[in-house]
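Notes from hallway chat w/ T.B., transcribed later so I don't forget. T.B. wanted the structure written out for a chain they're using in a teaching module, and asked if we could keep both sequence and structure tokens in one place. Agreed to drop them here.
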Amino acid sequence: MPSLHAEIGLPLRTFRLDVELEVEGTVALVGPSGAGKTSVLRAVTGLVKPQSGRIGLDGEVWFDAERRVFRRPDERRVGLVFQEYALFPHMTVRQNVAYGGRGRADEFLERFRISHLANARPTELSGGERQRVALARALARDPGVLLLDEPLSALDAHTKVAVRGELQELLREFGLPTLLVTHDYEDAASLADQVGVIVDGRLRQLASPRDMVARPADGFVASFTGANLLRGVARRRGHLTAIALESGDEVYSADLAEGPVGVVVYPWEVLVGHARPHDSAMNVVEGEIRSLVHVGNRVRIKIGELTAEVTEDSVGKLGLSVGSRAVASFKATGTRLVSSSSRS
């Protein structure tokens, strides 16, 4: 498989973007707004010229600061799908796709199952249909690399699930090096082979979604992937570490640490009940239920500073309600410790 190399040094308004990536398969960049994610895409496409670094696709060099090489956007084999898709409203679907590759429009209309929309205008399409048109246009120009800017952000929650599945299949089918940016970790984990968390122009961590959850580099990464992040002070106690939380509770972890730490617990690892468990391997936090949020067929429950995720059936059987008290418990082996020094 071809590989995109992107080494980018670019001064931005309040910080400097310094990122180095090797993109094989699909890599997703996630992070807060203004972290530098879209600037990476703009540098790869040639819409902005970095101050230093090198960008290329296998043997093709698109940018090299030392050798003073800078190819224009039209000289780079890049297919770009913009956040709002940027379809031409005065053109039909066929004309939009033909803009990417005039001789291949009908081929891609068929391939993306949008032939029946060939004469429609973008304003007549659903969000999922507009995305398929934008992808068809980007791929019709036979790119060597595909760039996706917030590919699912313009979709409603119901449409998003279906389109995410379609996009997964398409990325596997075309097999291009793909770099996408998103603020949604769930989208990144669903679509990408590797996820990079970027903050203030620097990568905090680059790993597979599974490894990032299992071994977050710091508290920010952990919280961005959906974890609870509790603060406390750790001290060794035998084969475990005891952590005195800021809330006054004490919990244990199988990770070894001393001093100030971040305690990482994922919501799906937290059990909820009315009584304290008798299992000595369990950590326990007791408190008032502050909120109940339904997400699909799951419910996220906020107990004190801890969020748990349980089934709707469990909420009904336990009679859980906002304002009532409940007990959250989780295993020491599922409690990860990270440095508390990183900004969160």
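Follow-up for T.B.: The chain has a mean pLDDT of 90. Might be a good example for the class.
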